Amino acid sequence: MKKYRTGKTEDGKDSFSIPLEKDQDGMIGRECPNDECQPKYFKISTTIPDEMASKASEFSQIDLTCPYCGTSANMQQFHTESQMEWVKSMIFRDVSKTFQDMMGKAFRPTSSSPKGMFSISVSFKPGSLPSVRHYVEEELKRTVICDACSFNYAVYGISFHCPLCGEGNLLQHLNRSANIIRVLIEECERIAREKGADVGRQMIGNALEDVVSLFEAFLKQIYQYEIKKRFNKEDAESRITKIKTNFQRLEGAELFFSRDLALGLFAECSQENKLFLQEQFLKRHVITHNLGLIDVKYIEKARVYEKQGNELEITPADVLKALEIVETLITNASFHLSKKE
Ligand SMILES: [Zn+2]
Ligand SMILES: [Zn+2]
Asked: Model's pTM, two decimal places?
């Protein structure tokens, strides 16, 4: 530890500055200090982009923003549990070494003791020192380069803020996910030509399922983020548990947003687009639960004259249109809610 000593604090305590080990991507792990935050863990690059060069000199003392919950605090508050364990194990090893050295000096072996006297012979053999507990950073697959400041960081799933500049980054994730679905939609015609119509059909069906998942996942994240900000822990948890599969249906999501967040999810969506999206969501239900074959429920709900048992007709153009409506809904929801802060 001696080599890390930087001096004494104002109240006379020794202070140390211990460099953290970077992972193979040059990142270090961070953990949000907010107890209520989930999943807390993220990683940040140790390279500061030129735009934020002013922060580079005191990097270890800057304020960070949690990408998940928006908590802002000094960098030193964001150490991970394993990093703290590692530091503690180094201190423990140091203390043990000092103690062993002390004992070694105090109990020098004596070659003889005066005869007739009651004596204790003590020998001290220094044992092995406790080992330092090393840690490895977790692997996070989602790396983000902030649109606003170019800082590089990694998160689980979706992040709301850039840790360095604090800017909202949700729409960046949305664009990325939507573009992946766009590629699938574009490719399904080629796949149908090369691998057969049924493979193409399956692929476009999967793309439609992805659109519904996008709607569900993003709105769920936005809802949870806002609910945690507005309600106490218990109340927030009880509302969040009630989500279940409600966000797989337009009416479900609409109800939760209007009831708990006073936000009209479809306020800016035309009735025509809403009905169109409704139909696509019903189709998704048939694909997921009835092998893509039209059932009575679909005929009733979609109010269409189709023959039961027939294969659903899903076109790339429809899936693309559904994707665009969903993107607009999510963008609007995140825009209106962030404005209310
Ligand atoms: Zn957090
Ligand atoms: Zn940023």
From this structure: 0.81
Tokens of 32: 């949000």
> How far is the centre of ligand 1, averaged over its atoms, from the C-alpha of 20 (Å)?
21
Could you state, in order of their start, the residue ranges of all structural domains in the chain? 2-79+137-155, 170-339
Residue 161 CA to ligand 2 center (angstroms) comes to: 8
In the reported structure, the alpha carbon of residue 52 is separated from the centroid of ligand 2 by a whole-number distance in angstroms of 9
Neighbours of ion ligand 2 (CB under 5 A): 146, 148-149, 151, 162, 164-165, 167
Tell me how far apart the alpha carbons of residues 184 and 206 are, in angstroms, rounded to a whole number.
9
- H-helix or E-strand containing 57? none
Instruction: Give the dihedral of Cα atoms 290, 292, 297, 298; nearest 10 deg.
Output: 160
pLDDT 10s digit of each residue in the chain, 341 long? 778 888 888 888 888 788 888 999 999 999 999 998 989 999 999 998 988 888 777 888 899 999 999 999 999 999 999 998 988 888 888 888 888 888 777 766 555 555 556 666 666 677 888 888 888 888 888 899 999 999 999 999 889 999 999 999 999 999 999 999 999 999 999 999 999 999 999 999 999 999 999 999 999 999 999 999 999 999 999 999 999 999 999 999 999 999 999 999 999 999 999 999 999 999 999 998 888 888 888 888 887 777 888 888 899 999 999 999 999 999 999 988 876 54
The pair of structure tokens assigned to 240 is: 């969040």
